[in-house]
Amino acid sequence: MSARPSLVVIGNGMAGMRTVEELLQLAPDLYDVTVLGAEPYGNYSRIMLSMLLSGEKSADQIMLNTPQWYAEHGITLHAGDPVVAIDRRRRRVRSRKGVDVPYDRLLIATGSQPFILPLPGSDLPGVIGFRSVDDVEQMVQAADNYPHAAVIGGGLLGIEAANGLLRRGMQVTLLHRTDVLMEQQLNADASRLLWHNLKGRGLNVLLNAQTSELYGRERVEGIVLADGSRIKADLVVMAVGVRPDVALAKSCGLHCERGIVVDDTLQTYDPHIYAVGECVQHRRLTFGLVAPVWEQARVCASHLARVGHRRYRFTRTATKLKVTGIDLYSAGDFMGGAGTEDLVLRDLRRGIYKRLVLKDNQVVGTVLYGDVHDGGWYFELIENGTDISPIRERLLFGKHYCQQTGGAR
After folding, report:
1. How would CATH label the architecture of 327-404?
2. Predicted confidence band of residue 406 (pLDDT cuts 50, 70, 90)
3. Is residue 152 classed exposed, middle or buried when 0-12, 13-18 and 19+ CB atoms within 10 A define those classes?
4. Three-state SS at 65
5. What pLDDT is recorded for position 188?
6. Which residues form the NADH-rubredoxin oxidoreductase C-terminal domain (predicted)?
């Protein structure tokens, strides 16, 4: 019997496995590691699901860690077997299939669940979220058998889902409740360019569209909008947000609010239990982008490895749309406000829009559409608080032009 302490990981997704990878770099022989995951696969990239849906990637190509990887690193993997109970007093977890595992340290990485609007008909077959390989398989199967799809939600995920279904040959209607697509990432000007691009691809994009109910007999057949109009839909994908999956944590008495509450070391109120990823809440924030989750993994791994000196601090992240042929980038405070000013470049003929938000001679936000080549550089300027006074007049033309003329580097 091993004398090493036991680390049990609940959740075989990107956050949990990134933490394990970081831990293996720091202390490869410290723990006996057991991983239990709800899905019957190795660890795959959820951010590549849109490319799996569109057919640009295969399932093998989005796999991050195959079952062989776990075996090579001495990790016991129970795939397709979610944990149903945590006994904090005895420090054990139990799975649906009856696996009972003790832990010295427990890492919860249960992620999030897609939010399904509580509308009449939302429980009909053919109404799904967009969160897993299983969801993609259902969408591909629907595309092979039915002509019409609707996607509710014009955010990042909804647009990627709509584009993927369009590429699969379906007639797709994208419904969004406001008049600005991706309003969390774009301003109105960039949204209009995106709207024109999507319409040009053959998507039926309806803005200010409020869904009131879904109808159908054996499966969903369509959507009724608040104005009484009807839209045919043999498949309805709801991409209206996610919620941290805290059911298991709550059931064992861990302190949860919107997410599992963690401190700067990603430790919960129970010193034996850590949590990372979309299931956590840190300083009142929850997380849906991959960059902060990677940093959480680094911090958590250092403490699990007993070399903990890092503290997690949320930092700004940039957003890109994963749709072939659409170049879009946003970062920072791109909406601006009191005390800010804008630098804007519009080239509608070429479909290019750039907006830089300045405050006190620093770039605080940017939206780029059509030409995102300098996105990373603008993000560096935001993060570093660079004084852009010497290059202000040339800033919109990008890093190369500014450096050629002796500006910021």
Report:
1. 2-Layer Sandwich (3.30)
2. low
3. buried
4. strand
5. 87
6. 318-386
Model confidence, pTM: 0.89
Checking if the pLDDT of 119 tops 60, the result is yes
Rounded to whole angstroms, how far apart are CA atoms 83 and 11? 9
Q: How many CB atoms lie within 10 A of CB 62?
A: 18
Task: Give 29-66 pLDDT, tens digit per residue.
Answer: 999 999 999 999 999 999 999 999 999 999 999 999 99
Query: Among 204, 225, 206, which residue's Cα sits nearest to residue 214?
Result: 225
E strand or H helix at 294: helix 290-304
- For the stretch 282-298, pLDDT in tens is 999 998 878 889 999 99
Output the pLDDT for position 38: 96
Residues 295, 30: Cα–Cα separation, whole Å = 21
Structure tokens given for 34 = 């057991």
Q: Highest mean pLDDT range out of 173-177, 286-290, 307-311?
A: 173-177
Q: Which CATH number fits domain 6-113+242-304: 3.40.50.720, 2.60.40.10, 3.50.50.60, 3.40.50.1440?
A: 3.50.50.60
Residue 43 CA, distance from chain mean position:
15
Task: Enumerate long-range contacts of 169-173, CB under 8 Å, 24 or more apart.
Answer: 169/143, 170/142, 170/143, 170/146, 170/235, 171/147, 171/204, 172/202, 172/203, 172/204, 173/148, 173/149, 173/203, 173/204, 173/205, 173/206, 173/231, 173/233
Domain parsing of the chain, residue ranges: 6-113+242-304, 127-238, 327-404
Residue showing tokens 């930092």: 315
d(CA 143, CA 128): 14
Burial grade of 50 (CB within 10 A; 0-12, 13-18, 19 or more): buried
36 near 8, Cβ under 8 Å? yes
Q: Do domains 6-113+242-304 and 327-404 have the same CATH topology?
A: no
